[in-house]
Amino acid sequence: MILTYLADIHTHSIASGHGTSCTISDMAKEAGRKGMKLLGITDHGPGTLASGTSSYFRGLPFCPRKRFGVEVLYGVELNILDIQGHVDLSDELLSNLDYAIISMHGQNYRSGTVKENTLAYQNAMKYPAVKVLGHCDNPAFPVDYDALAYTASRENVIFEINEVSLTPGGYRGDTRANNAEILRCCLKYQLPIVLSSDSHGKEHVGDFTYAAEFVHQTGFPESLILNNQIPRLKVFLQTR
């Protein structure tokens, strides 16, 4: 039996562009309707076309922390820009957000060798706000998962298992082998993971249908999945 999970910390509102018209309140209302307890809003950084500006991220810390009975965290999905691990939001703005996800997107980062891509992630992990490696299962950006997991365990960063990546017919292609390797390495280093919907809009908030099925089929231990361990998840995100 696959559990129902209570937290989703990788979601996007209208501020990320991509055609969605859902506000943060729309997202929280849907999360509350589904019985969720914790929602993380992680709109794309300014490097993404039509996404949130610096002013948007500056204002997020002043937004309500509780909406429709759901606790809301305010973060960002940063774009990795180069092998040096530079990202598209300033240290000042990052320090005032709850956490950051780091991801590679083709419009901002030109994929290199396995060694180069791995180094880019490792360098980006050194920002204190960075807590989650976003969809690094993408075959377009090959990496050394063992090296990433080792660094993540040292830097207090975790992997996500991304619902969009594992949805059949998804635009990232077949990511199952990469996700299996992520889970193997996380188990090796006893590194927790988080299931992420990566929902753009309210429709898929808290939807881990394929991600949860995949993780449980591999026998990955529930004790290392943080979505239902909300106090532990919040402490983890707040540790800099």
From TrEMBL:
<dbReference type="InterPro" id="IPR050243">
    <property type="entry name" value="PHP_phosphatase"/>
</dbReference>
<dbReference type="InterPro" id="IPR004013">
    <property type="entry name" value="PHP_dom"/>
</dbReference>
<dbReference type="InterPro" id="IPR003141">
    <property type="entry name" value="Pol/His_phosphatase_N"/>
</dbReference>
<protein>
    <submittedName>
        <fullName>Phosphatase</fullName>
    </submittedName>
</protein>
<dbReference type="Pfam" id="PF02811">
    <property type="entry name" value="PHP"/>
</dbReference>
<dbReference type="InterPro" id="IPR016195">
    <property type="entry name" value="Pol/histidinol_Pase-like"/>
</dbReference>
<feature type="domain" description="Polymerase/histidinol phosphatase N-terminal">
    <location>
        <begin position="7"/>
        <end position="82"/>
    </location>
</feature>
